[in-house]
Design goal:
By secondary structure, this protein is low in regular secondary structure. The protein has one domain: 2-Layer Sandwich (Herpes Virus-1). It contains 2 helices and 3 strands; from the N terminus they run ββαβα. Strands 2-1-3 form a 3-stranded antiparallel β-sheet. A hairpin with a 5-residue loop joins strand 1 and strand 2. The longest helix has 6 residues.
């Protein structure tokens, strides 16, 4: 089951479990659409993998299987390519 991390690792913006703007890599590193598009250009800065749309969890499932509350934010923000 996906962790559904609660925020963008670059800018720290909130990305709730039902967000349509969350993107992840195969390791579940999580970024918002704005950071994914610019400056990351669709590539995870941690592993180099492709960033793809994270599936949104249905509201009734979020009650039983809540999103993670552990926030991860890069101290240096998004790297530039």
């Amino acid at each position: 089951m996906l962790e559904l991390r609660p925020n963008c690792e670059c800018c720290g913006c909130d990305l709730p479990g039902d967000s349509k703007d969350a993107l992840i890599c195969s390791f579940e590193c999580t970024f918002c659409r704005a950071c994914s598009e610019q400056p990351l250009k669709g590539q995870c800065p941690n592993c180099g993998g492709e960033l793809v749309k994270r599936p949104a969890r249905a509201a009734e499932k979020l009650i039983k299987y809540p999103a993670s509350t552990q926030r991860i934010v890069k101290a240096q923000g998004c790297p530039t390519h």
